[in-house]
Amino acid sequence: METSSGIAAVSADANDASPDEGSAGEQLVNKLSRAVLLAIGLAVVLAAIAGAGVGDANAAGADPEGARLGGDFAAFYAAGSIVQSGDIESLYDPVRQEAAQQDLGLDGYLAFAYPPHVAMAYAPLALLGFQAAYLVHTILMAAAFVLAVYLLIPMVPLVARWRWPLLAASFTFLPLITAVGGGQNAALSVLLLTAIWRFLHDDREVVAGVAIGLLIFRPQYAIPMLGLVLLSKHWRAVVSAVATIAITWAATAVFRGMGWLTSWWVQVGPFVDRDAEVNAANSISTLGFLQAVWSADSTLARVAGVSLAAAAVMALMYLWSQPERFTLAQRMGAAAIGLILISPHTMFYDASLLLIAGAALLAESTLVPARLFAAIWSGALTHLFADWFGATPLAVLVMGAFAVWLWHVSSSSDASLTRPIEELA
User: Sign of the C-alpha dihedral, residues 94, 95, 96, 98?
Assistant: First the structure.
């Protein structure tokens, strides 16, 4: 069905139908979507087998412009191997990290700055060869995203009918396919944020809190989420999250000592500053983007970036402090976009979180603003011009999405949640 404004719409009855009971056109879309997913899977397997650049630092794959296997996975794999060697005390030593990565096809090394328990989690993968570990990691990250999609079904029934097209569109969304294929863990962040949404929706606050605690591998996401659920008075979730974080801290202290948190921050601080310059064109946070536009040392960039991030924090606090006025979907959609903007270190592949905001839109109505989704999917491709601009246009898209989302939420609330979502398109 199509509205007079050209927006695709799906009726509530259609949502309840089996995905395999649609029209011939729908069945064709499902087949094409599965074909796209199969092609992506085969490409990953073939890339892992080829292993471009692995074992030869002078190979074409070692060139930053070349086809080196794994993207950022080398940093995680090497960190896991350092833990496996029993040398966890040297985990953040640049010389040690470079030595661990010397046969992985890099010219230099990729710094590992995650908390120590993340390296411990990667230690089992380090028992495998790099190519096999990369393939396993890619499968795990893809599975994490698929699980996130299935967790959405109770909140977004539309997902059940259109799961194949939605998966195909998601895995061809530039930030997500780059994260999954490039050895990053953005899909895990999507899964945990989706789990928080699902378990709060189901009134299983303790499990939602565990998901927040597990998200502490990205402190810049976990700590704000903890604050937001506190504002919305999900007390059991808060207690559970704090307990999970405390257990994580204690388990890490067994291997790194009681003062590991301070020593970790002191060791990774220089990396964060250096990365603001090296990866400036890939940053989509307000601070990182403005530093890329002006310079990492620009006072104006810092003041403007921090001010915009603070404004985003205030907006999120306002929404989450009024759960009786704003729906959980509205609050989670805002959080998914806002977390991207407020973190001082957010790369373009973290825009994968926009997919949660998209799901929140679908949860608001059975009317699907297809043109809006197509615009965001296409807009992500502007990141391909980041090096040319010196800053990624994708950051502007994320900022715009946050502004539009706040406008939509405010309008919906003022209209007692009766404003049709298709007016966004």
Answer: positive
